[in-house]
Amino acid sequence: MTYLLKKQTILLKIVLRLFTIGLLPVVSAYPAVGAERIEFNYGLLEESIPISSLETYIRTGKVDNDLAVYRKYVGNQQLTQLRKALTTPIPLTQVEVSQFLYTPIGERLLTSLGKVIQTESRISGFYAIRAALILSAVEPKDFTLLNVLKKFPASAVSINLNQGLGIVNALQDLVNQTQSAVAFINQKSQQKASNTYTLNSIPKLDLAKSGNFRFLKQTIILNDLSRLRQFPVDVYLPVTQTPRPIIVISHGLGSDRTSFAYLAEHLASYGFVVAVPEHPGSNSKQIQALLSGIADRVTNPREFIDRPLDIKFLLDELTRLSKSNSTFQGRLNLDQVGVVGQSFGGYTVLALAGAKINFKQLKADCPALEDTLNVSLLLQCLAIKLPNTEYNLSDSRIKAAIAIDPVDSSIFGKASLSQIKIPLMIVSGSADTIAPALLEQIQPFTWLTTPNKYLALINGGTHFSTIAESSNEVVPVARQVIGSSPALARRYVKALSVPFFETYVAEQPSYLPYLSPDYVNAISQQPLPLSLIKSLTSEQLQEAFK
Asked: For residues 54 and 156, what is the distance between their CA atoms, to the nearest angstrom?
């Protein structure tokens, strides 16, 4: 029973966090009753915590006899964290929460939650969770996890430990394997640092600092009549009379062309022409349309096709403008093109680099979607609704790519990622809970066959570490979700992208020493240490797990 109590405390924290993910509708089907206790059920065994005990602790800081049973397993610090989690307002409105939960992604989350969070009759909590959330969201200031528990339309919130402990164990396995993989990568990076270039042989440039080129920013509107798709593009033009290499930046789901403006400006200062399109079906406006009731889904599966086509069309238009528009004439080198993208943008650049949508892999992985700990599969598996045909999304004009926190394990899998032939850098954050580092970047890196490949690992980096704060942010991201020192993570992206694109797009081999563990070791700082490796096999990874 002691083992179960320890597991319960872990599960309780996970459940309370999951409540904030699986967000809300249908209130009219339930009477206005509220849960009085949280029950933990494991076969015939049952333990419970009165919700009044949690309220007393939150209000006075006192731990009564019922809660004291759990304190010896979680400790005072974790109880304090729990207190904060229960009372922190959730920054979403009733309409926003409702709209999200009516989407396929929202309903899949509820289905998964409902297996663990049940009514006192031990049936799925799918509808009860929705009811609790909508009742709590009526008044934004009262929308907290504590009120969600109190509004749960049953006398008890029943936690199925059979299901829940399976999740806890799977999560612990994933965490342990990720930690082992990260430790191996860090060790390998450190070992290589002493065997490649010495610090004395590396030029002393700080590539995170701006370069010497002045540049101008111009916004153009592109209209692809063949797809009835119009979208803006910010173009950063270095002030020069000679044709310059081109870098295209693809933002992630729910972001926009300002999310990586810092990187666009930085690359432009080194003489690159930088084009930043805004993908209209998966940008911040799309999420705003969903939350306001205008759109009925997070994104259309067609976006897996349209995003790469946006960039192909953009390159076509830049080719045309370079011949007909005085602003662009003589300033663009369409034979030297690189791409960089984050998250869904990471998928986009991998597709452009030569990876094809792998319907066989999707069909194998997506049926088990409700049991996965990989949140990014909720997005990837939308692609299974596309017509099963071969899409030509690659572009031979692209000479190199950087994928930051990409989602790729199922949408591409080993068979497709192994087809990429151009130089590729994958940037991963070890603390990414959306696109887990092990599943979406580290293992996929072992599938690559291109000879010029790099894996940059930001220890402690999250899915949001490299994204700049934006005034267009639809749903505020909590500071603890962003993680520590995002400015440092963005500095790493700048310091790595310059030598990568100078080497493989601008064809300046003098920058190659900067793509070394030695240089990375020199710029690495706490609290986000940076590592870089150029090779990793699945056998090495399996050995690291032992």
From this structure: 14
- pLDDT at position 444: 98
Strands 156-160 and 117-118: antiparallel
Beta strand extents in 349-487 (DSSP E only): 398-404, 424-429, 453-458
pLDDT in tens, 393-417: 999 999 999 999 999 999 999 999 9
Q: How far apart are CA 367 and CA 386, in angstroms?
A: 16
In this structure, the chain runs to a length of 546
- The continuous run of DSSP H or E covering 248 comes out as strand 244-250
Paired residues of 244 in beta bridges: 332
Quote the tokens at residue 47. 């333990």
Average pLDDT rounded to a whole number, residues 360-389: 92
**Residue 360, burial from CB neighbour count under 10 angstroms (0-12, 13-18, 19+):** exposed
Instruction: Residue 71: count other Cβ atoms within 10 Å of its Cβ.
Output: 14
Q: What is the mean pLDDT of residues 72-95?
A: 82
Q: How far apart are CA 427 and CA 249, in angstroms?
A: 14
Per-domain residue ranges of the chain: 2-154, 179-545
DSSP 8-class letter at 385 = G
**Nearest CA-CA partner of 278 in 247, 305, 298, 249:** 249
CATH code of the domain made up of 179-545? 3.40.50.1820
Q: What is the pTM of this model?
A: 0.83
